[in-house]
Each structure stands twice: as structure tokens, then as C-alpha cells.
TrEMBL record:
Family: Belongs to the sulfatase family.
Stored InterPro entries: Alkaline_phosphatase_core_sf, ARSB, Sulfatase_CS, Sulfatase_N
Full protein name: Uncharacterized protein
Top-level taxonomy: Eukaryota, Metazoa, Spiralia, Lophotrochozoa, Annelida
Keyword Hydrolase recorded: yes
Secretion signal span: none
Keyword terms of this UniProt record: Calcium, Glycoprotein, Hydrolase, Metal-binding
Originating species: Owenia fusiformis
GO molecular function (one): metal ion binding
Cofactor: Ca(2+)
Any single Pfam family the record assigns to this protein: Sulfatase
């Protein structure tokens, strides 16, 4: 009788915990220009022990699609809309272009903030900065440390565009000149760790972490190049070294997640924003095409998810997922309601239980300027 009563009480307590537990922390990591064949879990030449461990413990996503370039993919992650629905379907935003992700869209961080999340962004924005209203701290992020454009030098944080040079690294809205000379993977890992150390755990955390790595220019501290003495092609060697620096940054962040007890209720999503640029050292073998193209090499992402809330783990998931689905999926696990007209689908059952994907089709892109269109 006693044990029966105990069991009943335990059951009721765990049900209550289930109903009232706070939603999970979400760490959404985006690598820039990481190719299909540029990760250690697929290519043993690539030294990414930290990413490999997370991928293998979690769920490797084998049919996860993105847009072929930066701005449209980031648009998809944060709005849940295909870029042809937001006006961002043509290539990327360049420094002098006075436009951005239209203000009528409410971004994922803003939705999560309304659900009680603390929201932080560390890294690359690339969704417009022609007016303050377009920048991260005006669009749902409590804090921002990163840069507004698509690329820049990794140490000086200058971007040279059409012979004009500009410094692009900010702490919230202020230029962060003190970081001149520091390597960006290191700056962003340090900032992410600082956020994790200071976060009040009574609130759920959304950390959006789009790294600069491993976009051109090919720049990296020497010590990472020493990891690849046998690679003779210099561009490939530097690129791989940059991938390993990214891996080390993720390793340091993972150590901090463990140290402060985040691992019990944190979902980590890792994805590239588009396929690898083969002219800048990347490799998408055996997929055809590369960054900028609509072929598999440009649009099929190296990606995985990790976290104890995934019911089935340690396998390769083949369900069709698209970049727009993260918005709906993350909003739904945070306890939010997904607007019915959004393009993204809640794929939680697919990624957490290997249930059949609810997605049967997607639009790769509709770009009337480049005359490039595709539908799956
Ligand atoms: C994963 O994707 C690759 C590339 O498209 C394909 O060759 C492979 O068969 C897929 N793996 C599974 C388990 O479906
Ligand atoms: C960024 O700004 C905040 C608030 O002003 C400050 O506390 C923090 O130390 C700054 N971070 C860096 C890296 O300068
Ligand atoms: C990772 O942490 C180690 C030890 O603190 C540090 O030396 C290294 O620079 C860090 N790497 C990155 C990419 O932040
Ligand atoms: C964390 O937030 C809760 C609720 O707002 C508050 O009661 C608590 O004092 C905070 N803890 C710290 C260490 O600031």
C-alpha cells in the first residue's frame, strides 16, 4: 500500500513537472559556408571532435535544406517564411544597399521574448542595418555582439567593399574597437560563455549564435593550420583550420553548458547557412554544385540537433526539413503558437522521435533577377 501510494505521488509530481516545467533553453548555432563534406562526422580528414561528439550523441540531419546564400537563409531561420515571401530572394544585402528584412515581420527572438525567454545574439546579422529599426537589438534581441554585413576580416573586423573600408563589429549598438586584433571565433565563444555564466536560470534562454566561421576571407591563427600538415592545397588547408577553430569554439561553449548545468534542459541546433564555396576551400562531395547554386551542394545543409528532450538519439534522420521549419519548431517547443500562414512547419516529431516528416515539398527559390527557380 505504502509503495503504491509513493508511486502514485511520484507519478503525480512528475506529471506536474511536465505540465509546469519551463520551456527548454535553445542554443541555435549557425556556421557560415560550411560544406557537406567539411565535417568530421562525414569526412575523417576534417578535425571537428567537439561537433562530431554532439552530432553522434544527438540526431544527424541528412535532409535538412537551406537557401543557397546567407541573407535568405538567415531570413528563413528567423521569420519562418521563404525569402520570396519577404522580398529577400535575390542574393545578399551589400553595405551600401538601403534595405533589410521588412519590419512587418516579427522575428523568432521577439516571439520567444514574449514567452519569457532571455534572448541574445552573437555573430553575423546580414538582415539589414540601413536604419536602427532593422538591427538586432530592435528586432527582439536583448543583447547583440557581432557584425551587420556578410563578411569582413577576422582580426581587424574591417570590411572592404568597392574600395571603401569600414569597421563592423558592435557591442549592442556601439562599435567594439577594443576587439581589433582578436580572432572572431574566439570573440564569439568568449561572449557566448559570458552570457551562459551570467544568465538567470529561472528564465529560459535563447542564444542565437551565427559564427563568422568559415566564410571567406581565409584567415586563421597559425596553430590551427598545424593540424593539417598533409594538406597541400593552401586554400583547403586554411579553410580546414578555420573549421577546427569553429569546432574549438563550440567545444568551449559546450564545456560551459556542462559546467553550469545547462545540458539537462538545452536544445542545441547546429546548421550551416548554405553549402560550401568550393572556390574558397570548401568541399561538398559527393553533392553537385556549391554555395550560390540551387543544386544539392548549395542547399543541403550539414546539420544536427542535440539535447535530452530528443526521444530518439544517436542516429541519422532522413526526414525532409527546410530552414523555414526552425521558426515553427522552436516556437512550438517554447510553448508558442505558430501563425498559420507561415511557410515553416513544426517538425518537432520528426527531429525528436523520427516520425515521418510533415514536409512534402518546398520552394528552393524564385529569383527573377537571376532567372533561377526550383521546387522540390
Ligand atoms: C544522406 O545524404 C547523402 C547525400 O545526399 C546520401 O548519399 C545518403 O544516402 C543519405 N543517407 C541516408 C541514410 O539517407
Ligand atoms: C558590452 O556592453 C555591455 C553593456 O554596456 C558591457 O557590460 C560589456 O562589458 C560590453 N562587452 C564588451 C566585450 O565590451
Ligand atoms: C577555447 O578555450 C581555450 C582554453 O581556455 C582557449 O585557449 C582557446 O583560445 C579557446 N578557443 C576559442 C576558439 O575560443
Ligand atoms: C533570478 O530571477 C528570479 C525571478 O525573477 C529572482 O527571484 C532571483 O533573485 C534571480 N536570481 C539572481 C541570482 O539574480
Amino acid at each position: 500500500m505504502n509503495t503504491l501510494l509513493q508511486a502514485l505521488i511520484l507519478f503525480l509530481v512528475s506529471m506536474l513537472q511536465l505540465c509546469y516545467s519551463k520551456p527548454p533553453n535553445i542554443v541555435f548555432i549557425v556556421a557560415d559556408d560550411l560544406g557537406w563534406n567539411d565535417v568530421g562526422w562525414r569526412n575523417e580528414q576534417v578535425l571537428t571532435p567537439n561537433l562530431d561528439k554532439l552530432a553522434r550523441e544527438g540526431v544527424i540531419l541528412n535532409s535538412s535544406y537551406v537557401q543557397p546564400v546567407c541573407t535568405p537563409s538567415r531570413n528563413a531561420f528567423l521569420t519562418g517564411y521563404f525569402p520570396f515571401h519577404t522580398g529577400l530572394q535575390h542574393f545578399v544585402i551589400f553595405p551600401p544597399q538601403p534595405y533589410g528584412l521588412p519590419l512587418k515581420f516579427t522575428l523568432l527572438p521577439e516571439r520567444l521574448r514574449k514567452l519569457g525567454y532571455d534572448t541574445h545574439m552573437v555573430g553575423k546579422w546580414h538582415l539589414g542595418f540601413c536604419k536602427w529599426e532593422y538591427t538586432p537589438t530592435y528586432r527582439g534581441f536583448d543583447t547583440f555582439l557581432g557584425y551587420y554585413n556578410g563578411e569582413e576580416h577576422y582580426f581587424s573586423h574591417d570590411y572592404t567593399y568597392q574600395n571603401k573600408k569600414g569597421f563592423d563589429l558592435r557591442n549592442n549598438t556601439k562599435p567594439l574597437r577594443e576587439a581589433t586584433g582578436d580572432y572572431s571565433a574566439n570573440i564569439y565563444a568568449t561572449r557566448a560563455i559570458e552570457i551562459l555564466e551570467n544568465h538567470n536560470k529561472s528564465k529560459p534562454l535563447f542564444l542565437y549564435l551565427p559564427f563568422q566561421s568559415v566564410h571567406a576571407p581565409l584567415e586563421v591563427p597559425e596553430r590551427y593550420k598545424d593540424l593539417y600538415p598533409a594538406v597541400k592545397t593552401q586554400a583547403r588547408r586554411t579553410y580546414l583550420a578555420m573549421v577546427s577553430a569553429l569546432d574549438e569554439a563550440v567545444g568551449n561553449i559546450t564545456d560551459t553548458l556542462k559546467k553550469y548545468g545547462y545540458m539537462d534542459d538545452t536544445l542545441i541546433v547546429f546548421t550551416t547557412d548554405n553549402g560550401g564555396p568550393v572556390n574558397w576551400g570548401a568541399n561538398n562531395w559527393p553533392l553537385r554544385g556549391a554555395k550560390v547554386t540551387l543544386w544539392e551542394g548549395g542547399t543541403k545543409a550539414s546539420a544536427f540537433v542535440h539535447g535530452p528532450m530528443l526521444k530518439k538519439r544517436g542516429y541519422t534522420n532522413t526526414g525532409m526539413i527546410h530552414a523555414v521549419d526552425w521558426y515553427a519548431t522552436l516556437l512550438s517547443i517554447a510553448g508558442g503558437k505558430v501563425d498559420p500562414d507561415v511557410d515553416g512547419i513544426d517538425q518537432w516529431d520528426t527531429i525528436s522521435s523520427d516520425a515521418p516528416s510533415k514536409r512534402k515539398r518546398f520552394v528552393y527559390n524564385i529569383d527573377e533577377i537571376d532567372d533561377s527557380f526550383a521546387i522540390r
